[in-house]
Design brief:
The chain is α+β, with helices and mostly antiparallel strands and 509 residues long. It has 3 domains: 31-330, no CATH class; 349-423, Immunoglobulin-like; 429-507, Immunoglobulin-like (Sandwich), CATH 2.60.40.3080. It has helices spanning 3-20, 77-91, 140-147, 184-195, 242-248, 258-264, 314-322, and strands at residues 31-34, 38-43, 67-72, 100-107, 114-124, 138-139, 158-163, 169-170, 182-183, 203-205, 208-210, 226-228, 253-255, 269-270, 302-304, 335-341, 344-351, 357-366, 369-372, 386-392, 398-400, 402-408, 413-417, 421-423, 429-433, 440-446, 451-458, 464-474, 476-481, 488-496, 500-507. Helix 2 (77-91) crosses helix 4 and helix 6 (258-264) runs antiparallel to helix 7. The longest helix has 18 residues, at 3-20.
Length: 509
């Protein structure tokens, strides 16, 4: 080979090598954009949630962040009150010296089952971002908190919209919606969680998965914590690829932040159904792993009737810390929830780092007095954060109230209540006892699922003589006063949404 030929050959090889090696992207200045909006939907097919969860906190702190809400008129007063409560809850849990601005709209949604949507303004390469997290989008509220100043003045940090034509809103503030209604405070709290950064950029179109926002194509900070079941980070898979799409619909995606793992008792599961659901897949916790009304149920993609969660939950708080938020003590407080699984009550509580608690007792209210429950109590770690579960089995139908009594290393006790829970019967049934009766009798209605029931009493000629219950959520109990009725046979009839039953009762003198 001549010298000239060799030179051309080497030049050609060099050009080929240069063409195959993609230059590293230059680190740019501060850039701005909007993350994709999430979509929260109503689950009308699921039965109503059988319990309402509330959280009583041992350390209730003052607001550590300020929110400014820009309401787009019309925004009704009762919806504003719910919005303000959700804002107050978040303001006690995150820390920021920079006001967080929200643009809130009350408008018809594109589809009837949509409860709300939200999208955060995002910022990359702002002053103070760690070098290893440059070219990464952050929710602007988080960027402001880290930078200590408003990085993007003139724009809201969060844009949120709620369905004004949804027919079943519950506007109350007490976390106690009727079985057929959807708690607005919970929905707003969920959407603001996305606005604070619990949202990713990954998507599937056809059979191709991709990530990145804007012309820069940067990932969101949330994306950096997503991994497959085998531990492979999703960002290590080729962008615009079939393997990435396969992972995103595999049902096996996890959030690998260390704090979220510690507070969730393992890697939190991300929602990754077999068919990609725009606005729902990837940017939520898994619907099956974190059921309606449970301790970590706030950030799942669908809400059930009667579900009320007025606390972010330990996994959400942990994920926010992993992504860079400083949290107040309220986001690390003890959380206690009660739920129902068939005839069993599931009691779950979370203890933060350095809680100091070494032992505890679960108690149940009986005739106005709390008594210890004969159940094995878990071994507590006074140093590390953890989630603990106690199952109390085979309870009869009725409403039960539990509380948690904890003791720390110096013997100091702390007591926290869970919301009352309803245990349902194996079948819809009406019972009257004693029968025959002389004075009073107890009328008990058992139901298999949440529903309103009415109980009326008729005489032998079919005339109504008493109404014991009127559109009352079952299971329920009432007293039949027989003293004002003549001796004879009467008929007690229950009418529910899915059944009816009549029983004869005899009054003696």
């Amino acid at each position: 080979m001549s010298r000239l030929t060799r030179l051309f050959y080497l030049l050609a090889c060099g050009l080929l090598i240069v063409s195959l090696v993609r230059p590293a992207a230059a680190q740019g200045g501060t850039v701005f954009g909007w993350a994709p909006a999430d979509t929260l939907r109503a689950d009308f097919e699921a039965p109503p949630v059988r319990s309402v969860r509330t959280v009583r906190e041992p350390r209730r702190s003052a607001a550590s962040a300020t929110f400014e809400v820009q309401y787009v008129e019309p925004f009704p007063a009762e919806a504003r009150a719910a919005f303000q409560l959700a804002v107050d809850i978040w303001s006690e849990r995150i820390e920021s010296a920079v006001p967080i601005v929200i643009r809130a709209e009350w408008e018809p949604a594109a589809e009837a089952d949509i409860l709300g949507t939200a999208s955060p303004r995002v910022i990359a390469n702002f002053a103070g971002v760690p070098p290893d997290l440059r070219d990464t989008w952050f929710a602007s509220a988080l960027a402001d908190a880290r930078a200590g100043q408003d990085v993007d003045p003139g724009n809201p940090d969060i844009s949120a919209s709620f369905n004004s034509t949804f027919p079943s809103w519950y506007f109350g503030l007490d976390a106690n919606p009727p079985s057929g209604e959807f708690d607005l405070v919970t929905v707003i709290l969920h959407e603001l969680g996305h606005g604070l950064g619990f949202i990713g950029s990954m998507t599937v179109e056809g059979e191709v998965g991709s990530w990145g926002i804007g012309s820069q194509g940067y990932p969101v900070i949330y994306d950096r914590f997503a991994e497959r079941g085998d531990g492979t980070p999703l960002l290590d898979l080729n962008n615009f690829s079939v393997p990435l799409a396969d992972a995103l619909v595999s049902g096996s995606i996890f959030f690998n932040g260390s704090t979220a793992q510690a507070q969730g008792g393992g890697r939190p599961e991300i929602y990754a159904p077999a068919a990609w659901q725009p606005g729902s897949s990837f940017s939520h916790l898994d619907e099956q792993a974190y059921a309606a009304g449970t301790l970590n149920g706030l950030m799942t993609p669908r809400f059930s009737r009667g579900e009320a969660i007025h606390d972010p939950g330990p996994i959400m708080c942990g994920a926010l810390r992993d992504m860079g938020w400083n949290l107040s003590a309220a986001c690390e407080a003890i959380a206690f929830s009660a739920g129902v699984d068939g005839r069993d009550v599931i009691l779950t509580f979370f203890l933060p780092d350095d809680s100091g608690f070494v032992s505890g007792v679960m108690e149940r209210e009986e005739d106005g007095v709390f008594q210890p429950v004969n159940v094995t109590f878990p071994t507590l770690d006074p140093v590390a954060a953890g989630t603990y579960t106690v199952r109390i089995g085979e309870l009869g139908p009725g409403t039960y109230t539990f509380r948690l009594r904890l003791q720390n290393t110096d013997g100091t006790e702390f007591v926290i209540d869970a919301a009352p829970v309803q245990v349902f019967g194996a079948a819809n049934a009406l019972d009257v006892f004693p029968n025959p009766m002389i004075g009073d009798a107890t009328v008990r209605v058992d139901v298999r699922e949440v529903q309103d029931v009415s109980v009326r009493v008729y005489d032998a000629r079919g005339r109504l003589v008493a109404t014991l219950l009127e559109d009352t959520q079952g299971p329920a109990t009432a007293t039949l006063n027989g003293r004002g009725l003549a001796a004879g046979v009467y008929f007690v009839r229950v009418e529910g949404e899915s059944f009816s039953e009549t029983k004869a009762v005899t009054i003696l003198r």
